[in-house]
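Form 7-S
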Amino acid sequence: MKNVLLIGAGTMGRKHAEAYTAMKEVFLLGIVDSDAAAADKAAERFGTRAFGSYEEAMMELDAVDVVDICLPTYLHREYVLKAADDGKHIICEKPLAGSLKDAREMIDYCKDKKTKLFVGHVVRFFPEYVQARQVMEQNGLGDVAVVKASRTSGFPRAWNNWYADSSKSGGLLLDLSIHDFDYLRWCFGEVERVFAKAYAPESPEGGGYALTTLTFRSGVIAHVEGSWSHQKFTTSFEIAGTEGIIDFNSASDNPILSFRKAPDKPSEGAAVPESPLLEAPYYRELAHFLSCMETGEEPIVTAEDAYQALAISLAAIESSRSGMPVALA
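Output:
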């Protein structure tokens, strides 16, 4: 049995709480939020206790095994260090931090305190993305050359409108496109060069658009679109190799289709099932992290992976500001 203290009663906190309450071997001890009304509402919904601060919760609870941090990005470092000081294992939502300096400090601090740090890059647990990677691992596409990925949504509304402050959220390249940066690095290895163009309106109403080109050491080139100016949330990718293409669009009736070459035909279409799961991706992600705490197994996404995804995002931000490509060491 794992006892979890959840910090943050916003959208992501509620997603995590929903997953925990569906797990048989997990008990959600409490939900912390400085917004008392939000904490009370979430606690009532998920059958747990509400707390106004981390310190209050830790004073009253003596059986916390895991601290799950679902707070705005700029608060991640503070609470990761607090939880590590208390000797608790930590799950922190992506992005790990807003700077590489903070991210490295958090990773090293947890190592020194002998606590495990897991970072929630959940796209690695979405079945469509997992299936596409498996097809490539089985050489189903031959040599991959070009990738297009897109992630679009409306502007996220949250506590104190913190997404609109790029000094706190990092903007869409850090908060949104980082999903695809992490996934593509998982598939194709290290990124050599980043070039990005971005538009971010200076308005509390938010919005914005960015297009990033990643050049991988392997030779693969990926174009990543991110937008906070669309009405609906959609994701898509197209992966082209010498032996075929995988095309996925979450808005399509047939969202994922693999086209393979055949010797006797110009092209042959083979459907790749979406494989909807009884377990949501957030459930799978969190259950995986909790299992790794028990077994010591290397997680599918490590804290170092989160660090590298952050490095790509920050390079894209730098490139979008300078108008020049940025090389990654």
